[in-house]
Structure formats: structure tokens, C-alpha cells
Design goal:
Layout lengths: L5 H7 L25 H8 L14 H14 L3 E5 L2 H12 L5 E5 L4 H10 L6 E5 L4 H7 L4 E7 L11 H10 L3 E5 L4 H4 L9 E5 L13 E5 L1 H14 L5 H11 L2 H20 L4 E5 L9 H7 L6 E6 L2 H11 L4 E2 L9 E3 L11 H6 L6 E5 L5 H12 L1
Parallel strand pairs: 2-3, 2-4, 4-5, 5-6, 10-11
Antiparallel strand pairs: 1-7, 6-7, 8-9, 9-12, 11-12
Helix pairs in contact: 3-10, 4-9, 13-15
Length: 388
């Protein structure tokens, strides 16, 4: 397509129409495919020609979703997995081997921490954490066997941000693969590949679906890197289902308009909370008080739909606030049409020690708000009464 506008690509890129000339892409609920003859089967399995051989490898619905995501983020290719964590595990497992080292941002999702701390440790893969806002730690953290640099930006739930252009240059200087978890921003707000990252990962479960319906993960990168991902994923089997791919591809059609609303409302929520006497601290990328505000403005289109706050009074005050919410859902998810409140210390990051949580800014009074698509007056009204 000649159109370069995000919204048009998200809507108009789709699988080739069948003989039925459908306007909306159909579901291809098939596990396998028919070959023209024995030679056609042989050539397809030998990768001598393009085509579908088995839905664990590829399906018209997953192919459409991948092609859209790659176009929207400026990547050459991609791979779809059953969940966001499957995407992270697949990426780590593809490019790392025993004896390798990962330099990672300290503020990573709880399950990512478990991969680094427990699962890959058993396989002889080591890691070092560095803070997103302290470049000197990155220089000190590099080792001769560092094969990958991994970051979440904005981070979950601390909303820390790192300059991706700087980090991409740093990674290349040290011959390390730069992998970015772009879940909070989506390709609409931030495009790590264009900023120099080698691989960009999404939990499509969140804002890309946007309605709390389904699970999915996306890995984006160069043709060469995705070929390596494919070699691992085709045989280990973290495949996305055709139905989930169909849902997620349809969801991309409204991603831009949804994110505009999420961001507009989240900024208003952050501004209100910052002025409230019961709130100790508010983290939101497009608040001028955010330590990396200028970086956020440089590499993000808007600030995203997540606001993290710390309430004076610790876990008791945080629990009291959440229990008084009437419209917000208490859930571990985010990126839904419905506004959600989460207490990270006792849920998403509960497997970290108290010391580890404090190192990434998670206090007992920390609450993560996923600001939904309800009317802003109702969102603010619910927060105000819960804080009263």
C-alpha cells in the first residue's frame, strides 16, 4: 500500500480476499492444509516455496496480524505467539545459550524477572540489572559474554523510561542484541525498531486487543532475526491460535482511536492525582514532573494509558482506596476498555522480595491504574470518592 498513515495501514492491510470477495477477513479455523501433489508438499516443507503447511507454523490469520504489526512498527518481519510471556521466553530462548549474559533493566514485569532469576539460571544464563535512569550502571553492567540487552520502556509499573536511540548505539558498541518490551506504548505511541532496537515485543493481550478478551504475543525484527525465531518457535510450539489472531487483527483497526482516548484521559487523571494531598507520588510519562519527561516527549507520541501512584499510608491506604472504588475493576490485567486498579506488591510483582520491589519503585502504597475508555468525568469521579 502507498498510504503511510498509521490508521489507514491498521485498517486496510489484510489477507488476500477469497473467491467469495468478503469485505472483512474470514476465520481460517484449520490445523492443516491440502497440497496440490506430492511435489508441492515436498517443496513447501523444504522451504523452496511460500505457503501454509501447518497452523503451528503459519495460518492466514496469524500472517495477516504479523504483516500488520510489522508495517505499523517499521519492522521487516514478525512472529505471533500464544501470549506476551511466550513472546519474551521465545526471544530469550532463541538467542541465548548456556554461558551467555543478559543486561536488563531492573524494572521488568514479574514473570520476566522469574525467567531471568529462576528458569534461565538453571540453564547457565546469567543476568545483571541496571536502572533505566542511570546510564553509568549500563556501562558497568556490560560483560564480555553479554549477548542481549533487554528493557521495558515505559516500565511496568514504575513508568521508568530510557532513551532508546542512546541505548541502541550502546548495544551496537558492545555487539549485544537490543530487545525492547513495547507493551505499554504499542506501535502507535512508540516504534523501537525505528529508534534502533533489534527486536520489539508486545503483549497483544493488553492495548492491542484492548477489550480484555484474549491472549497473544508479537515479536518484531529483521528478516534474519525472525528467521531464527521461526526456527525455535516452529518446533517448540508457542503458537497463537487463528481465532486469537483474527480478533487481534480486527482490534488493530481501532488501536489509534482507542489509544488517543486512553492517553487523553490518563493525562487528566495524572494531573488530578499530582495535586491531591493524599498522593505521595505520581508517575506518568507526559507529566513535566516525570524524571524522563523530555525523553518521553522525544520518543513517544503520547504518554500511554497507565498511571502509577503511591498513596500515603502504605498497603492499608492502598487497599482502602482500591476497595472504595466503585467503577474501576480490581484486576491484574491492563489495556482494557474498562478502567482497572492493580496493587503490584501483592499481585503482578508479589514474587519479588520487598527489597527487589523497592529497587524498582514499588512501595506497599503503589497502585497501578489502567485508565479505560469510560467518560473522563466518571473516571475522575470514582477516583475522587475513593480518595475521600
Amino acid at each position: 500500500m502507498q498510504e503511510e498513515n498509521f490508521e489507514t495501514l491498521a485498517i486496510r492491510l489484510q489477507a488476500e480476499r477469497t473467491q467469495f470477495k468478503e469485505h472483512s477477513v474470514p476465520l481460517y479455523l484449520t490445523s492443516s492444509y491440502k497440497f496440490d501433489d506430492a511435489e508441492d508438499m515436498r517443496a513447501l516443507f523444504a522451504n523452496e516455496k511460500e505457503g501454509n503447511v501447518y497452523s503451528r507454523y503459519a495460518n492466514p490469520n496469524t500472517t495477516e496480524l504479523i504483516d500488520k504489526m510489522a508495517a505499523l512498527e517499521g519492522a521487516e518481519a514478525g512472529w505471533a505467539t500464544a501470549s506476551g510471556m511466550a513472546a519474551i521466553f521465545t526471544t530469550f530462548a532463541t538467542f541465548l545459550k548456556s554461558g551467555d549474559h543478559v543486561l536488563s533493566s531492573r524494572s521488568v514485569f514479574g514473570s520476566t524477572h522469574q525467567l531471568l532469576n529462576n528458569i534461565f539460571a538453571k540453564w547457565g544464563i546469567t543476568y545483571t540489572y541496571a536502572d533505566l535512569d542511570k546510564p553509568e550502571q549500563w556501562e558497568n553492567g556490560i560483560q564480555p559474554n553479554t549477548k542481549m540487552i533487554f528493557v521495558e520502556t515505559p516500565s511496568n509499573p514504575g513508568i521508568d523510561i530510557i532513551d532508546l536511540e542512546w541505548l541502541a548505539k550502546f548495544s551496537k558498541q558492545h555487539n549485544a542484541l537490543l530487545v525492547v518490551d513495547n507493551c505499554f506504548a504499542t506501535p502507535y505511541l512508540q516504534q523501537p525498531i525505528k529508534l534502533g532496537a533489534d527486536v520489539s515485543i508486545h503483549s497483544a493481550t493488553k492495548f492491542i486487543d484492548g477489550q480484555g478478551r484474549t491472549l497473544g504475543g508479537i515479536i518484531l525484527g529483521s528478516d534474519k532475526l525472525i528467521k531464527e525465531i521461526e526456527g525455535f518457535a516452529r518446533h517448540s510450539g508457542p503458537a497463537m491460535s487463528p481465532f486469537n489472531a483474527w480478533l487481534l487483527s480486527k482490534s488493530l483497526e481501532t488501536l489509534a482511536v482507542r489509544m488517543d482516548r486512553h492517553c487523553e484521559s490518563a493525562l487528566k487523571v495524572a494531573e488530578f492525582l499530582e495535586s491531591h494531598p493524599a498522593i505521595k507520588r505520581v508517575m506518568y510519562p507526559f507529566l513535566p514532573s516525570h524524571p524522563q519527561y523530555e525523553i518521553a516527549k522525544k520518543q513517544m507520541k503520547q504518554g500511554g494509558g497507565i498511571v502509577t501512584l503511591v498513596i500515603d499510608g502504605g498497603v492499608e491506604a492502598a487497599s482502602n482506596f482500591m476497595n472504595k472504588l466503585k467503577m474501576f475493576s480490581i484486576s491484574a490485567n491492563l489495556g482494557d476498555t474498562r478502567s482497572i486498579a492493580t496493587h503490584p506488591a501483592t499481585s503482578t510483582h508479589s514474587k519479588l522480595t520487598e527489597e527487589e520491589r523497592l529497587e524498582v519503585g514499588i512501595e506497599q502504597g503503589t497502585v497501578r491504574l489502567s485508565v479505560g475508555l469510560e467518560h473522563i468525568n466518571d473516571i475522575l469521579g470514582d477516583i475522587k470518592q475513593a480518595l475521600s
